């Protein structure tokens, strides 16, 4: 079984939980994922299966879209509502001020990675330091916010204010950290209440399947070709095909930077990329031995 499956991850499951469930239902251990979602989060989780594992990095888009529910008024150690409250400050704001602050985040910036994350510092994951109450300075990473909009009118409660945002961000952006920083800029503290990933590159939540769909057999695997629609397909035969199957560097035979190579039967063989000197070299071999 080979291809790409787009799952709508439910709440309270880790990404690894979903990989294990899908692997069991499909009867294969060759299942991966291309972008972790926290247990609190729901939405698009892209699973490469079988030979598609070889092109996992090509499925990881630079752009992702999220819808998040924000609570202003307190911050937790995990930066979401599953954590312990560490700071509080009753918020006051107007809709105009909120929209202005949201707009100020558009563009590139340096974002501090949350302590409860798998990013490593000195060989250990940040959450390992956090769980053991060991002080360490989290790193900053460059991110880009492409769009950030308010989806509803803020709801004012006794000590908090809640609202929903929709954002399109670069790979590696933590929405929990973004909400924290929005809170700081509004003169209070912010915590993530809910999160849904609605898009990962070309993969949309409306085209995803639930776990129940998988269990009922109500799903469709995307072929490698379908999962990489932006990569040109080049058909090759005979001597050139033999060289490609052997992973050899060959004379340039397509114009684009990268191409998916198929044989005369449209079987996916490899991905090649053009390099300096009018040569094409192997980027990733897809075809495997039938006995593998």
Largest β-sheet summary: 9 strands, mixed
In DSSP terms (H or I, runs of 4 or more residues), the helix count works out at 8
Contiguous low-pLDDT stretches (5 residues minimum) are none
Determine the CATH superfamily of the largest domain: Pseudouridine synthase
Fill in the CATH topology of the largest domain: Pseudouridine synthase
CATH class of the largest domain equals: Alpha Beta
Helix content: 10-25%
Reconstruct the topology from this structure.
Elements: E1 3-9, H1 15-26, E2 42-49, H2 56-59, E3 63-72, E4 74-76, E5 85-88, H3 95-103, E6 107-112, E7 120-121, E8 124-125, H4 126-131, E9 140-150, E10 155-156, E11 161-170, H5 175-185, E12 190-200, E13 203-204, H6 211-215, H7 224-227, E14 232-235, H8 238-245, E15 250-251, E16 258-262, E17 268-275, E18 279-285
Can you walk me through this structure?
- Helix content is 20%, strand content 36%.
- By secondary structure, the chain is of the alpha+beta class.
- The protein has three domains: 3-61 and 201-226, Pseudouridine synthase, CATH 3.30.2350.10; 63-200, 2-Layer Sandwich (Pseudouridine synthase), CATH 3.30.2350; 232-285, Archaeosine Trna-guanine Transglycosylase, Chain: A, domain 4 (Roll), CATH 2.30.130.10.
- The strands form four sheets. Strands 1, 2, 3, 6, 9, 10, 11, 12 and 13 form a nine-stranded mixed β-sheet that branches.
- Strand 16 (258-262) and strand 17 (268-275) form a beta hairpin.
- It is elongated and about 75 Å long.
- The model has no long low-confidence stretch (mean pLDDT 92).
């Amino acid at each position: 079984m080979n291809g790409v499956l787009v799952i709508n991850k439910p709440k309270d499951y880790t990404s690894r939980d979903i990989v294990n469930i899908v692997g069991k239902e499909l009867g294969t251990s060759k299942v991966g994922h291309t972008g972790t979602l926290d247990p609190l989060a729901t939405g698009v989780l892209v699973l490469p299966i079988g030979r598609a594992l070889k092109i996992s990095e090509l499925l990881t888009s630079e752009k992702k879209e999220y819808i998040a529910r924000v609570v202003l008024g307190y911050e937790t150690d995990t930066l979401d509502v599953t954590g312990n409250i560490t700071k509080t400050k009753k918020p006051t704001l107007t809709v105009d001020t909120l929209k202005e602050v949201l707009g100020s985040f558009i563009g590139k910036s340096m974002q501090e990675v949350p302590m409860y994350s798998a990013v490593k510092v000195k060989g250990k994951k940040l959450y390992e330091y956090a769980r053991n109450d060991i002080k360490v300075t989290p790193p900053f990473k460059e991110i880009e916010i492409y769009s950030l909009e308010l989806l509803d009118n803020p709801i004012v409660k006794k000590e908090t204010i809640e609202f929903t945002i929709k954002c399109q961000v670069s790979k590696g952006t933590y929405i929990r950290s973004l909400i924290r920083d929005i809170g700081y800029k509004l003169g209070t503290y912010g915590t993530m209440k809910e999160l849904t990933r609605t898009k990962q590159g070309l993969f949309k939540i409306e085209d995803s399947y639930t776990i129940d769909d998988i269990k009922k057999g109500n799903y469709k695997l995307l072929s490698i070709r379908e999962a990489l629609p932006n990569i040109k397909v080049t058909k090759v035969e005979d001597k050139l095909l033999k060289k490609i199957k052997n992973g050899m560097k060959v004379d340039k035979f397509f114009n684009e930077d990268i191409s998916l190579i198929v044989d005369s039967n449209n079987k996916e063989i490899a991905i090649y990329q053009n390099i300096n000197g009018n040569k094409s070299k192997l980027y990733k071999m897809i075809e495997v031995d039938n006995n593998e």
